[in-house]
DNA sequence: CTAGGGTTAG
């Protein structure tokens, strides 16, 4: 290494920039730095080479530092340098410096330069200044694939998929053809819209037509989109056909399997990628832990945890949140707390994971205690966080505290309560026997009550033997969820508990008329006084509608064998 | 000599 430095220093006698490209390949960047300092004739050429060299190699901080330095020396940067620096600004999310460069560019004129315009569009898009990005884009005299892709990616990455798709339409109308970069962005925009699957299929055809179907960026984006639509088989087809499987492709598959409750498959792929010596990365860990939580397989979760520690990934905030979530879901809240305490960086999501862990583990008081600490730590709680807090109140039966926190949302944090938080309050009032109050809340909130609210309300009616209100809730549920058995069963139980046997028979008859039948292939276990439903076929843990359907049948089955479900076994307790 | 892309947590 030393020899390289000496050799390069020899070359540098006359021109620094002539060797600067090689310089970065041969010696560490730290040495490049000191070499520059020791070089006697620091002119514009050498400064620019250093800036571009660092920028090109992704050392954004150094590139920006040198750029500031050269401006301080009064050296005028060329457009080449400004282009590199803009890219570094966008990576560092330094909108301030980026705007200053923009101002400089306006003075010297840049509209004809596609490189500079695209870099500006990208900068503003990455810094979430989409109006500004659009202004630059619209001001361009002509567009190329890069500028189109920059504006499309900008909207897609900021959760504005619809607008991204409108730009994409504009691109298709123009002479410019989308390339693999464009498609990689467009599929992430796709998954946000209603008819995602239909559109993705159409665009998939276009991908093949334009011959970019082998690009791994396009494939992983497409796989992710299909997975989010629940089209697991399509994703598998794409994955099997892919030639060079990189770590992101594996991660996309593992995340997809986890999101679709196919924990076993996620694990199989993880083992496969390890056999091929690929990864894992932070992304792999968080997806895989997600799968552990839903399978409630603690052993595997612990194995991953030790691997994470071994690889030094135990301070990544995504990984930590997943660990907390996994341990909580496996019922070891104390272990989750240890991981939480050990994490140096703590954001809103991590705090919320931990509060949820306490709430769902039946330790509502600890959850609320943690929330107070969150506030003391200077964090600003958001909607999801309040859902956790209110859930903790529901589990602990803290009515007054629940009301106080609910009011606090709007009074202290300017958060307008959403259906999720109203649902908690309806549940809380209902369970405490304040059914009128719960009903009042449903009638006066700014939106229509949803199925979750009616379900919990019906459950509360059953606990407190409120026939009339229960009947009404059940009929509302029958209207929205005709395929769901839960309201029928709850209503039947409600009648049964007060001895209205004729009505029980009526409800059973209604169920039979609707053709609601028992589902096979599911079983249940009781762990920590909670019912867990799982599929016998693959051991996976069904979610949402599937879990409700399965649970309906199980409760029926249990009742038929003389098992009387307690209130805590109503559906919203099981959906964890 | 300069520009654009895919996967993760409550």
TrEMBL record:
Signal peptide: none annotated. Pfam families: E_motif (PF20431), Eplus_motif (PF20430), PPR (PF01535), PPR_2 (PF13041). One of its GO terms (biological process) is RNA modification. One of its GO terms (molecular function) is RNA binding. Keywords: Repeat, Transit peptide. The keyword Transit peptide applies. PPR repeats lie at residues 43-77, 144-178, 246-280, 347-381, 484-518. Belongs to the PPR family. PCMP-H subfamily. This is Pentatricopeptide repeat.
């Amino acid at each position: 290494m030393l020899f390289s430095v000496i050799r390069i220093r020899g070359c540098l006698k006359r021109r620094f920039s002539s060797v600067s490209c090689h310089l970065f390949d041969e010696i560490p960047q730290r040495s490049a730095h000191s070499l520059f300092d020791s070089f006697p004739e620091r002119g514009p050429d050498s400064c620019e080479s250093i800036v571009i060299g660092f920028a090109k190699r992704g050392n954004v901080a150094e590139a920006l530092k040198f750029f500031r330095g050269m401006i301080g020396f009064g050296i005028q940067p060329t457009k080449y340098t400004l282009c590199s620096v803009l890219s570094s600004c966008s990576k560092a999310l330094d909108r301030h410096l980026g705007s200053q460069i923009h101002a400089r560019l306006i003075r010297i004129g840049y509209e004809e330069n596609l490189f500079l315009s695209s870099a500006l569009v990208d900068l503003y898009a990455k810094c979430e200044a989409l109006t500004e990005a659009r202004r630059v884009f619209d001001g361009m005299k002509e567009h190329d694939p890069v500028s189109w892709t920059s504006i499309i990616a900008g909207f897609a990455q900021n959760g504005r998929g619809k607008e991204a798709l409108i730009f994409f339409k504009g691109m298709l109308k123009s002479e410019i053809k989308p390339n693999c970069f464009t498609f990689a962005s467009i599929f992430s925009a796709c998954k946000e819209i209603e008819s995602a699957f239909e559109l993705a299929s159409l665009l998939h055809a276009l991908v093949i037509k334009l011959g970019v179907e082998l690009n791994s960026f396009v494939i992983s984006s497409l796989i992710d989109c299909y997975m989010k639509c629940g089209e697991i088989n399509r994703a598998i087809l794409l994955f099997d056909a892919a030639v060079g499987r990189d770590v992101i492709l594996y991660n996309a598959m593992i995340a997809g399997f986890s999101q679709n409750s196919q924990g076993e498959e996620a694990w199989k792929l993880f083992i496969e990628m390890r056999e091929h010596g690929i990864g894992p990365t932070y992304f792999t860990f968080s997806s895989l832990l997600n799968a552990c939580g839903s399978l409630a397989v603690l052993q595997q979760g612990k194995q991953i945890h030790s691997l994470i520690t071994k690889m030094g990934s135990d301070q990544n905030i995504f990984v930590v949140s997943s660990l907390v979530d996994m341990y909580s879901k496996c019922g070891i809240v104390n272990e989750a707390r240890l991981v939480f305490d050990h994490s140096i960086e703590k954001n809103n999501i991590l705090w919320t994971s931990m509060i949820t862990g306490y709430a769902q583990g039946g330790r509502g008081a600890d959850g609320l205690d943690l929330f107070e600490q969150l506030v003391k730590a200077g964090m600003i709680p958001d909607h999801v966080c309040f859902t956790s807090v209110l859930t903790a109140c529901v589990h602990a039966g803290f009515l007054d505290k629940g009301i106080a926190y609910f009011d606090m949302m709007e009074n202290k944090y300017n958060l307008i309560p959403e259906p999720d938080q109203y649902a908690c309050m309806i549940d809380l009032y209902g369970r405490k026997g304040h059914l009128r109050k719960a009903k009042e809340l449903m009638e006066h909130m700014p939106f229509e009550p949803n199925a979750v609210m009616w379900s919990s309300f019906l459950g509360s009616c059953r606990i407190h033997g409120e026939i009339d209100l229960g009947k009404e809730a059940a009929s509302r549920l029958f209207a929205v969820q005709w395929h769901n058995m839960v309201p029928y069963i709850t209503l039947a139980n409600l009648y049964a508990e007060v001895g209205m046997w004729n009505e029980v028979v009526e409800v059973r008859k209604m169920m039979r008329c609707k053709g609601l039948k028992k589902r096979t292939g599911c079983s249940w276990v009781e762990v920590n006084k909670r019912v867990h439903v799982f599929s016998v076929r693959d051991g996976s843990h069904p979610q949402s509608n599937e879990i409700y359907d399965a649970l309906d049948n199980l409760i029926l089955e249990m009742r038929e064998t003389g098992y009387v479900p307690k209130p805590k076994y109503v559906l919203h307790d099981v959906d964890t």
